[in-house]
Amino acid sequence: MTSIAIVIVTYNSADVLGGCLQSLPSEGVDITRVVVVDNNSRDDSVAIALAAADRLPIRSVQTGRNAGYAAAVNAGVATLAEEKYDAIWVMNPDTRLRPDTLRILADALREPRRGIVVPKILNLDGSLQPSLRRAPTVTRALAEAVVGARAGRIGKIGELITDPREYEKPCAAVWATGAAMLLAADMVREIGDWDESLLLYSEETEYALRAADHGWSLWYEPSAVVEHKGGESGTNPKLAALLVVNKVRLFRRRHNLPAASAYYAATLLGEGVRALRGRRTSRASVAALMHPMRQPTLGD
């Protein structure tokens, strides 16, 4: 039986954490530890986590600040140093598991050098939540700038895979949303911590790409299903700007100057067009891209 440690990152998550914890008991796996890492919530997130200790092996960790997703994941993994486990399940508190989800993912993780396995993600109404991505490229950034989210349905020119047919079969992917992913323990030990300089967005991208650099693959398993409420990056200007800025920052780190400049220009073009159409999130993104010293940061 596969032994799994779970890391949940919370930030003012009291309205969803209870349901998340209730969904954790799973068929066919041994949950050795559940670490709830709290980023200085002002609500009852910590109390809700501790109240579940009578039915789950809960450990609560408080970062003392809004440290971001990567830093919280690292803090959770660090507390597992003396634990024995085969894999780590990293999840958002606004996700819920089906009883067989972890078992299916654990079975898929047994393939040699398969380091990350991700489930199909559904919205709360049962509709598909696109979660798989292709490699970031200048061409894809330009395509998404010109035609928007529809690029995901035109061959392979979009980074975000939006065609529902692509989610019906198991497959390898370049990266996937970090809201729900199972990580092989050997991979975690080999490639090290998540990159804490990427606050809130692109940290899962960097982690998956770095895993691939070390010869570990990411696998999508659609028979494992997770429900996900989803965040505010589509409506909150500050969060949207963080998302866009971090995409550009990560691309710059991994490519030469001409490619990075072209990617920046394509991203700025896309956000600029949408800003002219009145989209508040794009106006914030343009401002952040054009004024690096005033780029958004996380605050409590």
TrEMBL record:
Pfam families: Glycos_transf_2. InterPro entries: Glyco_trans_2-like, Nucleotide-diphossugar_trans. It comes from the Bacteria. The keyword Transferase applies. Pathway: Cell wall biogenesis; cell wall polysaccharide biosynthesis. Gene3D superfamilies: Spore Coat Polysaccharide Biosynthesis Protein SpsA, Chain A. Keywords: Glycosyltransferase, Transferase. The keyword Ubl conjugation does not apply. Signal peptide: none annotated. Residues 6-122 form the Glycosyltransferase 2-like domain. Belongs to the glycosyltransferase 2 family. PANTHER family: GALACTOFURANOSYLTRANSFERASE GLFT2, RHAMNOSYLTRANSFERASE WBBL. This is Glycosyltransferase family 2 protein. The lineage of its organism: Bacteria, Bacillati, Actinomycetota, Actinomycetes, Micromonosporales.
